[in-house]
Amino acid sequence: MSRIQISGGLYACLLFCQLSTTAVLLLPAPLINVAGQEAWLAVITGALLGLVPTLLGVYVCTRHPGQEPAQIARTVLGKWLGGLVSFVYAVFALFIFSLVMRDLYDFLNGVLLSRTPGLVLVAGMGAVVLYGIWTGLEPPARVSFQVVVALVAGVGMMELLCIREYSLLQREPFLFRGVGSVLRATPLPGSWFGEGLFAMSLVPYLKHPRQAYRWTFIAFAGVTLMIGSVVLNTVLVLGPNLPARLVYPTFTVSELINLGAAVERLEVLLVIIWTSGIFIMLGIYLLAASTAVTHSLGLRHHRVPAAILTVIGVWAVRMWPSGLDLMEYGISDLRLVIHFSLLFGIPLLLLAGSLVHGIRQRRRSVSA
């Protein structure tokens, strides 16, 4: 399979889109429900937590330049255990792909396209994502920079126009619920940021893989700043209690914006930008899953696996419950335990195998 090379900046833009797009819309409600008006602090602590598995994955990739995660797994863990890890990696990526598609379907079907048949909407989304990654990472990489600029500008404009809606005197004292509420809320954004683990499927495309650390930090810092400001802005506009009872509090805040009778419905522009970022995010997960399957099976190209996985992902979307049930699932203890077990287990297992493999190679070179 031919492979393009991307700059560190485009790598950071892809990672930014992957980590931020669903979080902007879905994270504020459950986070504010647990941490109250200090939810923005939980975004920072969650980002630090999620940075750990991401950096572990990046470190493993830099030890094996140019290799995909599935190739690394087979190299350092052997055919059978490496194949199992590659399978888990692919299934994990496909699972998140399907959940994100369900999130997008729920939002578009509930807010904008309520009369569109669900199967048509989901199949259309899957076809667009599949077409986008048909030739590899190049299409989403080219679009990611424009999406990041538009997303940051749109969120910034929304927050500036919401300043007149702030009511600071009605807010609770700082850390009114205590530090414990922030710590209890930390795993939720931590699981979101921890999905930066799939940067392992982006690092092999970097022109200079050693720069992955710097650009990973830049992407995480940018996402943390944007999500934290979105959560804080939501609390300042709606208070610490109302957002927890809303499914899309960020969208609700954007609906409050108008620049007079001539300029209204600015939230539609934000939806277009957000949807573009979602498609890039879906493309990253589909590419991660399809390349893992491709290398595990020894195929020459990822196109056929990508098409099959898209069909499976689209079919699985109809099996998931509604958005409200998914929000409840998203903050359950069982979900977080499983999620973090995979986020930390995959890179730690690869790292251990890589270190042992390196020691064995050095011993062989010395004995030779």
Describe this structure in words.
The chain contains 15 helices and no strands. The protein is mainly alpha-helical. The radius of gyration is 21 Å and the shape is globular.
What's the topology here?
Blueprint: H1 8-26, H2 28-35, H3 39-63, H4 69-77, H5 79-112, H6 118-132, H7 138-161, H8 179-185, H9 187-194, H10 212-238, H11 249-255, H12 267-297, H13 303-317, H14 323-330, H15 333-367
Helix pairs in contact: 1-7, 1-10, 1-12, 2-3, 2-8, 3-9, 3-10, 3-15, 4-5, 4-12, 4-15, 5-6, 5-12, 5-13, 6-12, 6-13, 7-10, 7-12, 9-15, 12-13
Based on the model shown, name its key terms.
368 residues, mainly alpha, 15 helices, 74% helix, globular
Annotated CATH homologous superfamily: Amino acid/polyamine transporter I
Portion in helices:
over 70%
Low-confidence stretches at least 5 residues in length (pLDDT < 50)? none
* Head-to-tail CA distance between termini: 34 Å
Largest sheet: none
Count of β-strands: 0
Query: Do you know the CATH architecture?
Result: Up-down Bundle
Tally of structural domains: 1
Mean pLDDT level:
84
Query: What is the CATH fold-level name?
Result: Amino acid/polyamine transporter I
The SSE order reads HHHHHHHHHHHHHHH
| Number of distinct helices | 15
